[in-house]
C-alpha cells in the first residue's frame, strides 16, 4: 500500500504514476464512476434532442442550419486535442515534465479553437432565428451542445489550473493522478462530441 | 441589485460585529468549538450521524404534513386545509419523505456502518462525503424555506408539466422544488460515487466480495443505482428550470415541446429511486434477522444475486408509472412483464428471511420486532405491486387511493420499518449507548398497529373510487368510515414516533454506556468499541469468512486477528470548504428561485472559487501515533 510515499515526493521510476499511491487509485476509480454518471446525463440530453429535433415551429430546419465544413473543422480540433492529451500523459509517465506541459498547452489551445468555433456557430444560428427560446428544437439543441461546450470550458480551466500547479510543485505523486483524471475527462468530452457530430450534425443533414 | 448590495453589506457588518473584527483569540476559540468540529468534520461516523439526525428532523416535518392531510380527510366536506394548501401539503409530504427523510437516513446508516463492516478506516473520499452531506442539507433547507418565502410547491412530488410550467404555476413554489432537489441531488450522486469506490477499494484483507455482509452488498447496489439514476433527475430538473426561468420550450407543447419527456426522465430516475430506498432496508433486515436468530443468513449467495437482479431490473420498469399515458399496448406489455419479473428476486429474499428464522434461536429485541413486522407488511405491498403491474387493471387503480396504499406499504412497511430497526440495532455503534428496549417495544406496537389502521383501509377507499391528491370527498359514497379509520390510525404512528423521540432523548441523557457487542453480533462493526474510535480499527482485521466476527468468536478468539502491525494511522484533515461550497449552491439556488440571475452568478462563483481553492490547498492530513492508540485503549480498559 506504499504508505511511506509522501504526496510531495517526485517519482524516480517511470510507469503508471497515477495509480502509484492509494489515494491515486481511489481518485482514478472514483473518476471513472463519475464518468458513468456523466454518460447517463448526456444520454438524457441526447434523447431529449432526438425527440424534439424536428419541432422547429417554422424556424430553420436542421438541413438549412448546419454547416458541416465549420463543424468538421471544430471536430478536427477537438479530436486532435485528445491525441495531444494522450501525448501529455505519455510524457508524464516517462517523467518528462517539460514535454508534458508542452502537450497540455497544445491541448488547451486546440480546445480553445474548438470553443471559439462553437461560439461563432451559436452566434450565427441566433442571427438565423434559431435561439434557445424559439422552439423546442432550439431549446434541446442548445441544451445538448451547450452542456458539452460548458464541459469543454470547465475542462480548459481545469487543465490550465493543473499546469500552473505542476509548474510550481513539479511532477509529484500528488499531481500525477490529478493530471490523469483531467485527461480522462478530456477524452470523455471528446467521445461525447463524436456522438454529437453523428447524431446532431450528420443525422441533421441526411436524416 | 440594490437590495442585494444592502444585504451583502449588512452580512459583512454582522460578520464583523460577531467576530469582533479580526480577532485571533476569537478565531482560535471558534476553531476549538464543538460546532466548528461538526461543521468541518470529514469523519464518516459523524457525517453519518448528521445525515441520520437531519433526515429524522425532515421525517418529523413530513410526518406533520401527513397528519394535517389526514385531519382534513377525517370527515367529508371538511374545510381545514383546502385547495392549494392541501396541494402544497401533499407535494411537500412526498418530496420531503423521499428526498429529505428516507434517503438521508439511509445514507446516515450506510455512512456509519458500511466502512466498519468492510474493515475500513474511512470512506474513499472523506471530503466528498462532507460535501455530499452539506449539499443535501442546504438543498433540503432551500426546499423547506418555500413555506415561509413565497409558497411551497404544489404540483405533486412528480411535478408534471404542463401543470408545473410558468403558465399554470407562476409562483416560486416549483422553482423551490427544482432547485432544492437539484442541490440535494448533487449530494446524493457524490455519496453514491463515494460508497462505490469505498466498497471496491477499501475492503480489509480477506474481505472478498462474497464475504461482505448483506447490508454492505445492498449499499453497494444502491450506490450503483444512485450513480445511474440521479443524472436523469438532474437533466429533468435542469430542463424544467430552463423552461421556467429562461423561457425555453422543452415541455411546452405550444412551442413543440413534449410534457411526456419530463415523465420519462422523472421515472427513469423515479423507479430506481424506490429501489435506492428499499435495498438498504433489505440489507438492514438481513443483518437483524440473522443476528437475532443466531444463524447464518440463509441462502447468502442467492440473496446477493437477488439484490443485483433487483438493481438491474429496477431500470427496466419505469413505464409502469406511465401505463395510462398512451404509449401503446406493446410498450405497456413489455414493461408489465419486466415489472412482474421483479417479484421473483424479491420472493427469493422473503423466503430466505423466513428460512433464516426457521429453527433459529429467536430473540425478540426491538430491532427483531421491526424485522418480523416488516416481512408480512412488505409482502402485502409487493402483492398490490404485482396487481398494479397489470396494465388493464392499472387503468382502474391509477390515481386512486389504491396506489397510495400500495406505495405506503412498501415505503413505510419496508423502508421506515427498516430505518427504525437499524436505529435500534446500530444506535450503540453511532452513539455508544443502547436505546431503551421497553420504550422501543411500545414504539413498535403503537406504530405498527397505527400504520396498518391508516393504510389498510386505503386499499378499499381506492377500489371504491376515491381519487388521490384531492382534498375532500362527498358524503354518501361509502367513504366516510374508512377515512375516519385511516385518520385514527395516524394517531398511533404519531404516538409511536413521539415515544421514539423520548427514547432518543432519554438515551442521550443516560450515562450507561453500551458494550462493544451488545447483540452477540456477527459482523466486523461489533468487534470494535462503542462508540467507535475515530480511526475505527487500531489494526486492520484479517477476515477469514462470511460473518467474520462470528467465526472468530466460535473459534474461541477474543477478537479479530490483525492483518497489519501496529503503526501510525493516517487521518484526513477537517475542512470548511464543503460548507462554503454548499452555501454557494444554496445562494445560487435562491438566485434562480427569485429569478435574480446576478445572485445566482455570485452563488456559482462561490462554488467555483471554492473548488479552485481546494485544488491549490496542500493538506495531507495527520497521523495518529501507535502510542496514542495503545494509550487510549488502556485507558478504556481501566475505566471498564
From TrEMBL, chain A:
MF terms in GO: cytochrome-c oxidase activity
Domain Heme-copper oxidase subunit III family profile: 29-205
Bilayer topology term: Multi-pass membrane protein
GO BP terms, alphabetized: aerobic electron transport chain
Protein name: Cytochrome c oxidase subunit 3
CDD domains hit by this protein: Ubiquinol_oxidase_III (cd02863)
Keywords, sorted A to Z: Cell membrane, Membrane, Transmembrane, Transmembrane helix
Transmembrane segments: 29-50, 70-90, 102-120, 140-164, 184-204
GO-annotated cellular components: plasma membrane
From TrEMBL, chain B:
Main location: membrane
Domain Cytochrome oxidase subunit I profile: 32-544
Topological relation to the membrane, as annotated: Multi-pass membrane protein
Keyword terms of this UniProt record: Cell membrane, Copper, Electron transport, Heme, Iron, Membrane, Metal-binding, Respiratory chain, Translocase, Transmembrane, Transmembrane helix, Transport
Gene3D superfamilies: 1.10.287.70, Cytochrome c oxidase-like, subunit I domain (1.20.210.10)
Biological process annotations from GO: electron transport coupled proton transport; oxidative phosphorylation; respiratory electron transport chain
Any Pfam family the entry gives: COX1
Annotated catalysed reactions: 4 Fe(II)-[cytochrome c] + O2 + 8 H(+)(in) = 4 Fe(III)-[cytochrome c] + 2 H2O + 4 H(+)(out)
EC number(s) given by UniProt: 7.1.1.9
GO cellular component, one term: plasma membrane
Segments crossing the lipid bilayer: 47-68, 89-113, 133-155, 176-200, 220-242, 297-321, 333-355, 367-389, 401-424, 444-464, 484-505, 599-616
Top-level EC class as recorded in UniProt: translocase
Subcellular location(s) of the protein: Cell membrane
GO MF annotation, one: cytochrome-c oxidase activity
InterPro entries, alphabetized: Cyt_c_oxase-like_su1_dom, Cyt_c_oxase-like_su1_sf, Cyt_C_Oxase_1, Cyt_c_Oxase_su1_BS, Cyt_c_oxidase_su1_bac
Pathway this chain belongs to: Energy metabolism; oxidative phosphorylation
Domain of life: Bacteria
Role this protein plays: Cytochrome c oxidase is the component of the respiratory chain that catalyzes the reduction of oxygen to water. Subunits 1-3 form the functional core of the enzyme complex. CO I is the catalytic subunit of the enzyme. Electrons originating in cytochrome c are transferred via the copper A center of subunit 2 and heme A of subunit 1 to the bimetallic center formed by heme A3 and copper B.
Listed PANTHER family: CYTOCHROME C OXIDASE SUBUNIT 1 (PTHR10422:SF44)
Family: Belongs to the heme-copper respiratory oxidase family.
Protein name: Cytochrome c oxidase subunit 1
Organism the protein comes from: Thermoflavimicrobium dichotomicum
Amino acid at each position: 500500500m506504499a504508505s511511506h510515499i509522501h504526496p510531495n515526493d517526485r517519482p524516480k521510476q517511470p510507469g503508471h504514476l497515477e495509480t502509484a499511491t492509494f489515494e491515486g487509485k481511489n481518485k482514478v476509480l472514483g473518476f471513472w464512476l463519475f464518468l458513468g454518471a456523466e454518460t447517463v446525463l448526456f444520454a438524457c440530453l441526447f434523447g431529449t434532442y432526438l425527440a424534439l429535433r424536428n419541432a422547429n415551429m417554422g424556424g430553420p430546419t436542421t438541413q438549412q442550419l448546419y454547416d458541416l465544413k465549420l463543424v468538421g473543422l471544430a471536430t478536427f480540433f477537438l479530436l486532435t486535442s485528445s491525441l495531444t492529451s494522450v501525448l501529455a500523459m505519455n510524457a508524464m509517465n516517462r517523467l518528462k515534465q517539460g514535454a508534458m506541459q508542452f502537450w497540455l498547452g497544445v491541448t488547451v489551445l486546440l480546445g480553445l479553437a474548438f470553443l471559439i468555433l462553437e461560439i461563432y456557430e451559436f452566434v450565427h444560428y441566433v442571427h438565423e432565428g434559431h435561439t434557445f427560446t424559439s422552439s423546442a428544437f432550439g431549446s434541446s439543441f442548445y441544451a445538448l451542445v451547450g452542456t458539452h461546450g460548458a464541459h469543454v470550458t470547465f475542462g480548459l480551466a481545469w487543465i490550465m489550473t493543473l499546469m500552473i500547479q505542476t509548474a510550481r510543485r513539479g511532477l509529484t505523486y500528488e499531481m500525477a493522478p490529478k493530471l490523469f483524471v483531467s485527461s480522462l475527462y478530456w477524452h470523455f468530452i471528446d467521445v461525447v462530441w463524436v456522438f454529437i457530430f453523428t447524431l446532431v450534425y450528420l443525422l441533421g443533414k441526411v436524416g | 441589485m440594490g437590495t442585494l448590495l444592502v444585504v451583502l453589506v449588512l452580512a459583512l457588518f454582522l460578520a464583523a460585529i460577531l467576530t469582533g473584527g479580526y480577532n485571533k483569540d476569537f478565531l482560535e476559540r471558534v476553531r476549538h468549538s464543538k460546532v466548528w468540529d461538526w461543521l468541518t468534520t470529514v469523519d464518516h461516523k459523524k457525517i453519518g450521524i448528521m445525515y441520520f439526525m437531519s433526515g429524522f428532523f425532515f421525517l418529523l416535518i413530513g410526518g406533520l404534513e401527513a397528519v394535517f392531510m389526514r385531519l382534513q380527510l377525517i370527515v367529508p366536506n371538511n374545510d381545514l386545509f383546502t385547495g392549494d394548501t392541501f396541494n402544497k401539503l401533499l407535494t411537500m409530504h412526498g418530496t420531503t419523505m423521499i428526498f429529505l427523510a428516507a434517503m438521508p437516513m439511509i445514507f446516515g446508516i450506510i455512512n456509519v456502518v458500511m466502512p466498519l463492516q468492510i474493515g475500513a478506516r474511512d470512506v474513499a473520499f472523506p471530503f466528498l462525503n462532507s460535501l455530499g452531506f452539506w449539499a443535501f442539507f442546504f438543498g433540503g433547507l432551500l426546499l423547506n424555506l418555500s413555506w415561509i418565502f413565497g409558497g411551497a410547491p404544489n404540483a405533486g412530488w412528480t411535478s408534471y408539466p404542463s401543470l408545473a410550467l410558468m403558465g399554470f404555476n407562476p409562483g416560486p413554489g416549483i422553482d423551490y422544488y427544482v432547485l432544492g432537489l437539484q442541490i440535494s441531488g448533487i449530494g446524493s450522486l457524490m455519496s453514491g460515487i463515494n460508497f462505490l469506490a469505498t466498497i471496491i477499494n477499501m475492503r480489509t484483507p480477506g474481505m472478498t466480495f462474497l464475504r461482505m455482509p448483506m447490508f454492505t452488498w445492498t449499499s453497494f447496489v444502491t450506490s450503483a443505482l444512485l450513480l445511474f439514476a440521479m443524472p436523469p433527475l438532474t437533466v429533468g430538473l435542469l430542463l424544467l428550470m430552463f423552461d421556467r426561468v429562461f423561457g425555453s420550450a422543452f415541455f411546452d407543447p405550444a412551442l413543440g415541446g413534449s410534457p411526456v419527456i419530463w415523465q420519462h426522465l422523472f421515472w427513469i430516475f423515479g423507479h430506481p429511486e424506490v429501489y435506492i430506498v428499499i435495498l438498504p432496508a433489505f440489507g438492514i433486515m438481513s443483518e437483524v434477522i440473522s443476528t437475532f436468530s443466531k444463524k447464518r443468513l440463509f441462502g447468502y449467495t442467492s440473496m446477493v444475486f437477488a439484490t443485483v437482479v433487483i438493481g438491474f431490473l429496477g431500470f427496466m420498469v419505469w413505464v409502469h408509472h406511465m401505463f395510462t399515458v398512451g404509449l401503446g399496448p406493446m410498450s405497456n406489455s413489455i414493461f408489465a412483464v419486466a415489472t412482474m419479473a421483479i417479484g421473483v428476486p424479491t420472493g427469493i429474499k422473503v423466503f430466505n428471511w423466513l428460512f433464516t428464522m426457521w429453527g433459529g434461536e429467536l430473540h425478540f429485541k426491538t430491532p427483531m420486532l421491526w424485522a418480523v413486522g416488516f416481512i408480512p407488511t412488505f409482502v402485502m405491498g409487493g402483492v398490490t405491486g404485482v396487481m398494479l403491474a397489470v396494465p388493464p387493471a392499472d387503468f382502474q387503480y391509477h390515481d386512486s387511493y389504491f396506489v397510495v396504499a400500495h406505495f405506503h406499504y412498501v415505503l413505510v412497511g419496508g423502508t421506515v420499518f427498516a430505518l427504525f430497526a437499524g436505529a435500534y440495532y446500530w444506535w450503540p455503534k453511532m452513539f455508544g449507548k443502547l436505546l431503551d428496549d421497553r420504550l422501543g417495544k411500545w414504539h413498535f406496537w403503537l406504530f405498527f398497529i397505527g400504520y396498518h389502521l391508516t393504510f389498510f383501509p386505503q386499499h378499499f377507499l381506492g377500489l371504491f373510487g376515491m381519487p388521490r391528491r384531492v382534498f375532500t370527498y362527498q358524503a354518501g359514497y361509502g367513504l366516510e368510515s374508512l377515512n375516519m379509520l385511516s385518520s385514527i390510525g395516524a394517531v398511533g404512528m404519531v404516538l409511536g414516533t413521539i415515544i421514539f423521540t423520548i427514547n432518543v432523548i432519554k438515551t442521550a441523557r443516560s450515562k450507561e454506556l453500551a458494550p462493544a457487542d451488545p447483540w452477540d453480533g456477527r459482523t466486523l462493526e461489533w468487534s470494535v468499541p462503542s462508540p467507535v474510535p475515530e480511526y475505527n480499527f487500531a489494526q486492520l482485521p484479517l477476515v477469514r469468512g462470511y460473518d467474520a466476527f462470528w467465526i472468530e468468536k466460535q473459534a474461541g478468539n477474543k477478537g479479530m486477528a490483525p492483518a497489519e502491525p501496529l503503526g501510525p494511522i493516517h487521518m484526513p484533515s477537517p475542512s470548511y470548504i464543503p460548507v462554503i461550497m454548499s452555501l454557494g449552491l444554496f445562494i445560487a439556488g435562491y438566485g434562480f428561485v427569485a429569478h435574480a440571475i446576478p445572485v445566482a452568478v455570485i452563488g456559482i462563483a462561490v462554488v467555483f472559487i471554492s473548488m479552485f481553492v481546494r485544488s491549490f490547498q496542500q493538506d495531507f492530513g495527520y497521523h495518529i501515533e501507535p502510542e496514542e492508540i495503545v494509550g487510549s485503549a488502556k485507558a478504556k480498559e481501566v475505566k471498564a
